[in-house]
Amino acid sequence: DDDDDDDEEEESDGEEVEAAEKEEEKAEKEEGEKRNKDTNHETSNENQDKNVAESEQLRELKYTAQDLKERIHFRRAAAAAAGRFIPTAHKGHEGCVTEADIAGVISRWTGIPVTKLVASERERLLGLKSELHRRVIGQEEAVTAVAEAIQRSRADLADPNGPIASFMFLGPTGVGKTELAKALASYLFNSEEALIRLDMTEYMEKHAVSRLIGAPPGYVGFEEGGQLTEAVHRRPYSVVLFDEIEKAHVDVFNLMLQVLDDGRITDSQGRTVSFKNTVIIMTSNLGGAEVAKQVGLKGTKVEGGPKPKMDRLTRRDDLARKRRLQERDVQHQSKPTEADKSSCSEAEEEEREEEE
């Protein structure tokens, strides 16, 4: 019996030891799991902080790269505008952007003629008359009147609220009315693309007048804007040519009176479009027969003949009678020799452009 009791006590002690060992192992395991969890949490926090730092660095690098791209784009645009590589402004300063480069880029982006800022505007205005005479042959009076009107405007002697100048060219076809408008746009604003030409035969109906300032809200084409207002809004420095003005609807003249008087128009979208930096030109064939009577058999003007009266303008003449126009000139038919000179001048201009 004593032996049996001893065996039972030994078994009981063994079970207690085994249970204690299991509890100890369990405690160690839990402690290890807790330690691993803490380690993983710390590692996760470290990784998160590291990712945030890397993101900030990448963001800084991105901004730096974007700035670099903008600088490269600006320099390339300046070089393209000048038509050459960016020159060295001073010795030892390679790749400096000059005043002419900046002016060229601004001119391309805005459409404002600032490319020739290096030249004095006074010199350009003084050379306006000779340049127009070179392009338009045989229209001494008209060219002189146009040049003097532009010079008066730039000298602040004209109405500051109206356009730079406004003209009405009357005469038969082929005397240089449109060519004079192109020459004026090319010299004043450095490109013939600055000429906004509107054919008034497209505005003979009353409903077509809305195309100039845009369709009313709710109508088709409201988002597109007006053909006149959008063109001037996008290119504020331009020559606006209303070709064959006598064919336009009477409501067009009411609109033009506002342009010539106030120098602005409100389009269908409520935007105010300024015409203060534009030159307004209207052409008409009315009176062509009267002008033809003043021309001899060989195309020469009859000496002492009376200047033709444009009584047929009627409602159109209100633009002149209301003193909205600065000049109104009758462009006479050119002499045959002068017409030949004009053709030769255009041919020489084309040859010069091809050589360039």
From TrEMBL:
Region named Disordered? 1-56, 297-356
> A Gene Ontology biological process annotation?
cellular response to heat
Return the protein name: AAA+ ATPase domain-containing protein
Keywords noted in UniProt: ATP-binding, Chaperone, Nucleotide-binding
Bias (Acidic residues) ranges:
1-18, 346-356
**Gene3D superfamilies xref list:** P-loop containing nucleotide triphosphate hydrolases (3.40.50.300)
Q: Name one GO cellular component term.
A: cytoplasm
Stored InterPro entries? AAA+_ATPase, ATPase_AAA_core, ClpA/B, ClpA/B_CS2, ClpA_ClpB, P-loop_NTPase
Q: Which GO terms describe its molecular function?
A: ATP binding; ATP hydrolysis activity
Bias (Basic and acidic residues): 19-56, 300-343
Residues annotated as domain AAA+ ATPase: 163-325
Any Pfam family from its record, for instance, is: AAA_2
